[in-house]
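[agent] plan:
  1. take the single chain provided in the ticket
  2. run structure prediction with default settings
  3. attach structure tokens to the ticket
  4. add a short note for the reviewer (M.T.)
[agent] executing step 1
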Amino acid sequence: MHVANIIRKYLGWCPNARTMRTALPVIATPPATIHPAQPDGGAGGSGRIDRGIKLALGSIRILFRNRRLLWFSLLTGLVMIISLASGLYLQFISGTTPFPGTNLVTSPASILIARGSLPWIALTFITGLTTTFLTYYLPAALIACVSLILSGRAATIRDGLAHAGRYLRPLLVWAIIWAFVGTVESFIISSSTSPNGSPGNFGLTLIAMVVLAVIGVLTLFVVPLIVLSNESLFPAVTESVALFRKIWGEIIACFFILFLIAFAVLLVSLIPMIAIGFSIATAGAIVVTYILVMFVLLFIGSTIVEIAIVGLYMYGKTGTLSAMYEGKQGRVETA
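[agent] step 2 finished; step 3 output follows
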């Protein structure tokens, strides 16, 4: 009952309420390029947690009310699949078993490209650059659409993609930087990995992954700053770090709530699969179905996370939450 009351409080949902459509909202918001007053930090930890919950649940609500944003989930999912497939294929042709300890994929009889060689490095960088650039370009378009929705205007997917096209240069430079860093990480990992796929220097690999994760978190707002504040790349990086320091509590609370929701969905999805019963005939179908559920949840979750990042960015810049994240505005459907 406590969980249900929290969901009703923040999502504004009532099982006995009838569906109502309100008039198209007219929201007066300042241009994204100005720099209004900064947030004062709120009422301690409880205030940060409360805002984090509102941002998480509000992001889900915004996606439900603008379901055509799910096209970004589909496009992002395709990019993820391409990235995964290219990474596995690169491992395959370099003689590394992608799934060590299994017979799902076997390495070729002869190594086509040696790990750590110049062709291997070039291929790793090119594939990484392609997928990384798309990974930044699609969120940039989504951020542009969400910004229009929050201002009460209709947002088309085409308009979002066109708006993101104005920032190809900083997005491409940012993608090149990350592709280079990713290539270095892959080189470090491959150099310490044995031919059968087991890590040789686990500590070095772990350090490289942690460093990349920290840099990624600190530069969480680089793309929103480029798209919404028209910042150049390197000022956007420094300001992203400053924004993270101001609203780190809201970021942790928001992402933690989204993680709990995703975990609950995965757990609930297991119930009908378990009810069917495990057998030799159904085990494979159950595993495949569950993997598909995980992929769909990952694709949709990526869109929800970007919507939440827009809300966090706007709160960090203005010190106030957008009304739509609190469920106080009507329905605006994208076209």
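[agent] step 4 note for reviewer: The mean pLDDT is 79.
[agent] ticket updated
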